[in-house]
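Model: You mentioned two targets. I'll fold them one after the other.
Researcher: Yes, keep them separate.
Model: Target one:
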Amino acid sequence: QVQLVESGGGLVQAGGSLRLSCAASGRTFSTYAMGWFRQVPGKEREFVATISRSGGITYYAESVKGRFTISRDNARSMVYLQMNSLKPEDTAVYYCATRLVVAATTTPSDYAYWGQGTQVTVSS
């Protein structure tokens, strides 16, 4: 079992930046991959980024590539999402998630453990 708690969301103007954080507890953090997803009301949850257990392998959705950076600090059991050059279409609730295994996927239904989400609103 693992518990995930996101923070760092807020309101920002287009072109601005935010850094989301996700604190994990319960299982040895360095043994599993992590992911970030987002969801807009009325739409399906969508993949944003994943990171391997060591942090050496990252993968991004095309819509955020070059603007967002996922990272992790295994000593602190934290995963981060640095979001730059934000656009109004990035507005969503952002969730961190894990499958508690080594391999990450981009499919939300593959993930069993989710945080409560943090709202990101980008104004134009």
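Model: Target two:
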Amino acid sequence: VQLVESGGDLVQAGGSLRLSCTASGFTFDTWDIGWFRQAPGKEREGVSFISEADYIKLYADSVKGRFSISSDMDKNTVYLQMNRLKPEDTAVYYCAAAVAPTNNGLRSSEFKVWGQGTQVTVSA
């Protein structure tokens, strides 16, 4: 059971990135997926969440209207489209999986399987 993130990069403020989270060893159809981020010296925070069958999508207030989560079950991949990036979005971004249903999709303790993270750096 493994999650692999990709898509992190260095981008200027106002730019866009799309992160990918691909699962191996299991399929997303009965799992909820969350995106989290951790900046240096800060707590890990929930960014976005998508439930199994895409029934529920959640976003942190700090990214609402700028980030969008989606899934492609054929590719067993969840995406995080990040637009209008800001320097404060700089962090390591992790995807995580939890057996559905989760009680709070933006709380890291709900999730048991984690990827290795991908670095997003937004320059001013």
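Researcher: Noted. Anything on target two?
Model: The mean pLDDT is 95.
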